[in-house]
Design a protein that fits this description.
The protein contains 9 helices and 4 strands, in the order H-H-H-H-E-H-E-H-E-E-H-H-H. The protein is α+β, with helices and mostly antiparallel strands. The chain has a single domain, classed as 3-Layer(aba) Sandwich (Glutaredoxin). Strands 2-1-3-4 form a 4-stranded mixed β-sheet. Helix 5 links the parallel strand 1 and strand 2. Helix 2 packs across helix 3 and helix 7 packs antiparallel against helix 8. The protein is globular. The two termini are about 20 Å apart.
């Protein structure tokens, strides 16, 4: 069941949202201050943000969209808004949000807007994953009516399966698991995310 959005994703929320370029600039500016986005300014979170900026810069240059996704974008004729909940310290966001931005090079039908989770908990809490505030979360809206078309997140299905299985392990080494997930992203080269976007865009174009 789709969550109601009329009183949650308001014009004020959308007006406060950032473009991808503004988000990247924010993360880079925070590097000079040894800070990150969000409420947790611990050394580990700041360190994650630093790694994520490098990941995003690399992806910005290297993402190659697959032919099937390019074909779907070519035929996409509905004006939609992609509202993405993110934070600079989030490794999954660093791997997936650049893919959303890459779509804009091939269609003018998608308006990408980013908001920070900790500043928008009312929106976040309408799109929980198994009761948790997991990000990134992509919320697709009809741009004219703000009708909710659907959502995605916080990670491709294969990576989500890894997370689900890890949570079953007692006293698992979280830092090692994070490295494992990031290695999966490196091997995957955004192909899983792209394949999922093909199906999503087909559904949202109706």
């Amino acid at each position: 069941m789709l969550a109601p959005t009329d009183s949650i994703i308001t014009k004020a929320v959308l007006d406060s949202a950032m473009s991808y370029d503004t988000y990247m600039s924010l993360l880079i500016d925070l590097m000079a201050e040894e800070k990150t986005t969000g409420n947790d300014q611990s050394e580990s979170m700041v360190g994650y943000r630093k790694m994520n900026v490098q990941r995003m810069k690399r992806l910005n240059k290297n993402i190659q969209l697959q032919p099937e996704l390019l074909q779907v974008l070519k035929g996409f004729n509905r004006k939609v808004t992609f509202l993405v909940i993110t934070e600079g310290w989030c490794g999954d966001a660093a791997q997936n949000v650049p893919v959303f931005n890459k779509l804009l090079e091939y269609t003018n039908k998608i308006d990408l807007k980013l908001i920070l989770r900790d500043e928008n908990l009312k929106v976040m809490d309408a799109f929980l994953t198994s009761g948790g505030r997991s990000i990134p979360k992509l919320i697709a809206l009809d741009s004219a009516t703000l009708e909710l078309l659907g959502s995605w997140g916080p990670r491709p299905e294969a990576a989500q399966f890894m997370v689900t299985e890890f949570k079953k392990i007692d006293n698992g080494d979280y830092s090692e698991f994070v490295k494992e997930v990031q290695l999966w992203y490196a091997r995957d080269k955004t192909f899983s995310m792209q394949n999922e976007l093909v199906d999503l865009l087909k559904a949202w174009n109706k």
